[in-house]
Design brief:
Layout: E1 10-11, E2 16-22, E3 30-36, E4 43-45, H1 52-64, E5 74-76, H2 82-85, H3 88-95, E6 98-102, H4 103-114, H5 117-130, E7 154-156, E8 170-173, E9 182-186, E10 189-193, H6 216-228, E11 234-237, H7 246-271, E12 275-276, H8 277-283, H9 295-314, E13 318-321, E14 328-331
Parallel strand pairs: 4-5, 5-6, 6-7, 10-11
Antiparallel strand pairs: 1-2, 2-3, 3-4, 8-9, 9-10, 12-14, 13-14
The structure holds zinc ion (2 copies).
Residues 81, 83-84, 194, 238-239 line the site of one zinc ion (ZN).
Length: 334
């Protein structure tokens, strides 16, 4: 399945190019940055991880395709994660390009800029405690605070046209993986960011774990439906490889999560007693045994577990036990 290990900068036809930008030390391997031709200079979809090697790969890869990074007109970021937004600031510095992202992710960027190291650690520690994490799982690593991404110059909403002179690049709001995730439609092609990938499914978590004001997995499932309704467009994802028929893959991912929701509800019914988010995460199936997951991966698994619990709760399939700390969940009829 590691077909993506051999990716090279490519001309894809129709004034679209792709450049793989490595993500050092990450099993995903790289981010596919796309360059879209325009008379005012190319517009990039995503920019890659902020690291000197990644910068060289982006600059050199664009150069191989005859594109000078100093000519870039704008960078539209599918979402604020560092493997997508990381280098946007550096591209802007050398080219004067604008940076655009959805307003919901722009708000998160502002939030990250406003949190100092200590506030971030306190937030994480309290979040883990309320989810029932213990031992090493409850310890917040020293360098937990992400490097804040560059602040955008422009924000986008669902249906907006991106400033790509002479062409129609439409922003499609697909919340779930992040609240402001965007897919971008250009004719019969869809830049899918992390929303729809050909082999893996993106991380969908809820943070803090016990929030009741949002339902990221519910949003994600709706965003998959939204993409399905666009028809069998060719997907140009930010990781792995380009694939046909985004609608078919989106339907497959929806099915995967519906099955997971069903299994989780059945497990809670079988167990009877209320469980903490940590206990529930340990009970679920992951790509490795729970005991083999690092504290960081357990934290992400708990985020996924919490997102599934929140969706089941929002559908009225399970309940949150009131007045207990840490928070616990239980089947309705227990
Ligand atoms: Zn992401
Ligand atoms: Zn990504």
């Amino acid at each position: 399945m590691r077909r993506y290990a051999s990716q090279k900068p490519q001309e894809l036809g129709g004034g679209v190019w792709s450049v793989p930008v490595p993500i050092p030390g990450n099993p995903l391997g790289y981010t596919l940055v796309y360059a879209l031709e325009s008379p005012r200079g190319p517009v990039l979809v995503d920019a890659g991880w902020n690291h000197p090697d990644a910068w060289e790969a982006l600059r050199g890869g664009l150069g191989m395709l005859g594109i000078d990074v100093a000519d870039v007109h704008g960078v539209v970021v599918t979402h604020f994660h560092p493997d997508h937004a990381g280098l946007a600031g550096q591209v802007r510095e050398v080219s004067g390009a604008w940076i655009a992202m959805h307003e919901a992710d722009a708000a998160l960027v502002t939030l990250i800029h406003g949190l100092d190291e200590e506030a971030h650690r306190d937030f994480q520690a309290e979040m883990l405690r309320r989810a029932g994490a213990g031992g090493d799982d409850a310890r917040v690593p020293a360098s937990a605070r992400p490097v804040p991404p560059a602040r955008p110059d422009r924000t986008l909403r669902d249906g907006d046209l991106v400033d790509l002179p002479g062409r129609e690049l439409r922003a499609i709001h697909t919340p779930g993986h992040t609240p402001g995730h965007l897919c971008l439609q250009l004719g019969d092609r869809l830049f899918t960011g992390d929303h729809v990938l050909p082999d893996i499914t993106p991380h969908v978590g809820i943070y803090p774990y016990d929030r009741t004001d949002v339902d990221p997995l519910g949003d994600f499932l709706m965003s998959l439906e939204k993409v399905t309704s666009l028809g069998p467009l060719t997907a140009l994802p930010a990781h792995e490889w380009i694939f046909p028929d985004v609608a078919a893959r989106a339907a497959e991912i929806r099915h995967h999560h519906e099955e997971r929701l069903h299994t989780l509800a059945a497990q809670l019914t079988a167990h009877g007693e209320p469980l903490t988010i940590w206990e529930i995460a340990a009970m679920m199936t992951w790509n490795r045994a729970w005991d083999d997951l690092s504290p960081m991966l357990r934290g992400m698994a708990a985020g996924e577990a919490a997102a599934h619990l929140r969706t089941l709760e929002a559908r009225g399939a399970i309940r949150r036990v009131s007045g207990v700390d840490p928070v616990r969940f239980q089947a309705l009829d227990s």
